[in-house]
């Protein structure tokens, strides 16, 4: 059993589901057509479009692939554009950088 997501997460999943439904309809696909192309059941497509929190991420990836948008999955948390993560890393940078001194070889 999947725990109920908080309200913000539930809203985001519902919006994603609506977008998936809209993308399907714009392409002129029925739920059965999309299910067939994803190799899943129609009920899985319904759960995906309903924003059901227990729907596996692999089904989202499959739907994106059918829509020709699979590359967008890698942009969800692009570390190069993660403003918060980069700011946290920058906050940890030292204020000064000292040059490394060469050690002179000791004479015997």
CATH architecture term: Orthogonal Bundle
Main beta sheet strand tally, sense and closure: none
* Overall 3D form: elongated
Cα distance spanning the termini: 74 Å
As a percent range, the share of helical residues equals: 40-55%
Number of domains: 1
State mean pLDDT (0 to 100 scale): 91
The low-pLDDT segments are none
CATH superfamily label: lambda repressor-like DNA-binding domains
The number of helical runs is 5
What is the helix/strand order?
A: HHHHH
CATH class: Mainly Alpha
Strand content: under 5%
> What is the CATH topology?
434 Repressor (Amino-terminal Domain)
Q: What is Rg?
A: 24 Å
Count of β-strands: 0
Q: Report the structural category.
A: mainly alpha
């Amino acid at each position: 059993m999947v725990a109920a997501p908080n309200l913000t997460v539930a809203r985001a999943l519902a919006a994603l589901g609506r977008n998936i439904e809209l993308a399907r309809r714009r392409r002129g696909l029925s739920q059965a057509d999309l299910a067939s192309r994803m190799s899943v059941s129609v009920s899985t497509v319904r759960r995906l479009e309903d924003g059901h929190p227990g729907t596996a991420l692999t089904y989202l990836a499959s739907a994106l692939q059918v829509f020709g948008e699979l590359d967008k999955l890698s942009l969800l948390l692009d570390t190069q554009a993660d403003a918060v993560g980069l700011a946290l890393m920058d906050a940890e940078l030292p204020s000064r950088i000292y040059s490394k001194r060469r050690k002179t070889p000791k004479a015997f």
